[in-house]
Design brief:
It is an enzyme of class 2 (transferase). This protein is an alpha+beta fold and about 350 residues long. The chain is built from nine helices and ten strands. A hairpin with a 6-residue loop joins strand 3 and strand 4.
């Protein structure tokens, strides 16, 4: 069997199509790549600035809240009645101070041996010597902090503690304030970044103090030591994109003076929605351009190939001795018209040559 090897060749249509695609798409795609890179850089900068500014806002609020509580407790602990370490003198102060700070549910004092001396709720005295915040103050810390399951409330609570010292600077006791985490979290939950942005506040042992997503807050202490963001390198230096809970997020982390960790996150898709929309619109524009180029190429290809095919047929007829042909393209002013006139002259020359041969014979 004889196999005919057909070799593909580019015809005029293919060449017109390739030329138009190159002339149209190369500048368009180049412009898109350059502008997309610049836009992505600017958007990344804007998103990062938004996270940093949000971080500053939340951190300032936490600092103000913490300073207010510590200052109130320091002032209360310096009163003579508080220094007396007598419950009957301390309880009125504890009651007034606790009422002034509505987010607190208990204010109490602890003797150096860990026994409970005074409290503002009139409840039964409870030993607190095993608590970390108490141990921190006993060991010389100016402020003790701990997230615990409150013995009184049975709910997660943040305990702040400050020393009670006599005029000779001797430690005579510890003043503590218990606060519901849900109340403190208002500082964090009031901050929103779009629909998915939120802030998370962790204590020194990475337990949740407040979470911007209320659905993440439970009645049991939550240990976030394994939270993905805490393992991301450089997150405390600048916003970083990483995976968290099966989604891409961009986040920023900061260590606060209290030893706490403040984390601000936003879903990547929302933060960079503008970029995705721009990319989608660019792809649509390129697709439309390709369709238009193909349509123009088909139109131009046919406009070029039709008269050339007709002249090819006429030239074939002349070569076969069919001299009575009509060439309609001779009136054109372009190269096709010039070719048509040349073929017409060729036909006349063939006719004259054949007439001379007939006369000789």
């Amino acid at each position: 069997m004889h196999l005919m090897n057909s070799k593909f060749t580019l015809n005029i249509f293919h060449k017109v199509l390739i030329t138009l695609l190159a002339v149209t798409l190369i500048p368009l795609i180049t412009l898109w790549l350059v502008s997309n890179k610049a836009a992505q850089s600017q958007l990344t900068k804007n998103v990062s600035q938004s996270l940093v500014l949000t971080m500053d806002t939340v951190a300032d609020g936490i600092e103000a809240w913490d300073s207010t509580n510590v200052r109130a407790m320091t002032q209360a602990s310096s009163l003579d009645d508080m220094i007396s370490m007598k419950a009957e003198l301390q309880n009125p102060i504890l009651s007034v101070t606790g009422t002034a700070y509505e987010w607190s549910y208990l204010m109490f004092t602890i003797a150096p041996d860990g026994s409970n001396v005074g409290r503002n709720d009139g409840g039964a005295l409870t030993p607190y010597g095993d608590r970390s915040y108490f141990q921190q103050v006993i060991k010389g810390a100016p402020v003790g902090r701990q997230v615990v399951m409150g013995k009184t409330s049975g709910k997660p609570a943040l305990i702040l503690a400050t020393p009670i010292k006599d005029p000779n600077a001797n430690l005579v006791g510890v003043l503590a304030m218990s606060m519901y985490l849900t109340d403190i979290s208002k500082i964090v939950t009031d901050i929103r970044i779009g629909e998915t942005g939120r802030a998370i506040l962790l204590d020194a042992s990475n337990k949740v103090i407040a979470h911007g997503d209320s659905s993440k807050v439970r009645t049991a202490l939550q240990d976030f030591s394994a939270y993905p963001a805490l393992k991301v390198a450089g997150l405390a230096d600048a916003p970083v994109v990483y995976s968290s809970e099966d989604r891409q997020v961009i986040g920023f982390m900061r260590k606060l003076p209290q030893g706490w960790t403040l984390l601000v996150e936003q879903d990547y898709d929302e933060a960079f929605a503008t970029m995705k929309r721009m990319e989608k619109e660019a792809r649509i524009l390129i697709a439309i351009s390709i369709v238009l180029v193909i349509a123009v190429a088909i139109f131009l290809g046919k406009a070029l190939t039709r008269p050339i095919n007709e002249l090819t047929t006429i030239a074939r007829q002349l070569s076969n001795g069919e001299l009575q042909v009509t060439i309609e393209q001779t009136e054109r002013g372009d190269e096709i018209g010039a070719l048509a006139r040349a073929i017409e002259r060729l036909g006349v020359s063939i006719q004259l040559a054949m007439d001379r041969l007939r006369k000789k014979s």
